[in-house]
Write a structure and sequence with these properties.
268 residues, alpha+beta, 60s Ribosomal Protein L30, Chain: A, 2 domains, five-stranded mixed beta sheet, 7 helices, 12% strand
Length: 268
């Protein structure tokens, strides 16, 4: 009876001695994969960190993981350092070139604005000397130098033909536009919002276009001006400078504008 019980007890007890070599094999496999990973990477610093971490986890003594690095630290590191230094030098060179380009653009823009200001001064002097302050005005904007001709010159109401008495003034303005090198000049016509009522023009839009074209034609009689630098636009009533609700506002909206464009755009 006692032998039967002892035999049954021995059968129920499992032999666990196999766990020791099994765990050693797993540890060695893990160490092998870590070493292979480290050898495939050119970053010795990462390998050293992993080495110290696994040594602390698996052993308290020495072993293969205790070596400072399995990656060569000689010429390879020197090559990497040289590559990093070259990239840094290239980045610094690029930044330096960009700064120089920004400075050059800023200087060119400043010079261009000074030239536009000189043109504005010349036009303003002409306006003052001929008592035209109620007819012409100038403003220096981000889009260029704007010369505005009020509605009380150049054209009769509802007409796009330059009045004979204003042709001389148009010719004098053309002389002010002679520049070396030349600049792009845009001539635009504008009206108020009162519908036009004649058989020649079906809308204020057509009237504004023809006023710009006819005024440009007078300017280009000056042989010193190159037509390729000129263009004409008509905006009708759609770009007012003030309200059309009163006669004074409508008078200001009826105008012809000359925009003398900058050569250099302002950098944002």
């Amino acid at each position: 009876m006692s032998k039967r019980k002892r035999k049954k007890h021995e059968e129920e007890h499992m032999d666990e001695t196999w766990l020791v070599p099994y765990s050693d094999i797993l540890t060695l496999l893990l160490a092998l994969f870590v070493i292979l990973f480290a050898m495939s990477s050119v970053d010795a610093q990462k390998f050293n960190v992993l080495s110290r971490a696994f040594n602390q986890m698996f052993t308290g003594g020495t072993g293969i993981m205790n070596f400072s690095s399995m990656v060569p630290t000689g010429p390879t590191d020197m090559k990497n350092d040289a590559k990093v230094e070259m990239q840094q030098n290239q980045a610094q060179k690029t930044d330096s070139e960009l700064e120089k380009q920004i400075e050059a653009n800023a200087e060119a823009y400043k010079k261009d604005q000074q030239e536009l200001y000189a043109i504005q001064t010349k036009v303003n002097t002409y306006i003052q000397n001929n008592s035209l302050t109620d007819k012409l005005q100038t403003s220096l904007t981000s889009e260029g130098l704007l010369v505005t001709i009020r509605d009380n010159v150049l054209f009769d109401s509802g007409s796009a033909e330059v009045r004979p008495q204003d042709i001389q003034m148009a010719q004098e303005i053309s002389a002010l536009l002679v520049m070396d090198p030349p600049r792009s000049i845009i001539i635009s016509g504008h009206t108020d919002n009162v519908p036009i009522n004649n058989s020649k023009y079906a809308s204020n839009w057509e009237l504004s276009v023809m006023r710009a074209v006819n005024f440009m034609r007078i300017l280009l009689q000056n042989s010193s001006l190159d037509p390729k630098w000129f263009s004409a636009k008509g905006f009708g009533e759609y770009q007012p400078v003030t309200s059309n609700d009163n006669p004074d506002g409508r008078s200001k909206n009826r105008r012809v504008e000359l925009l003398i464009s900058p050569r250099v755009e302002k950098q944002q």
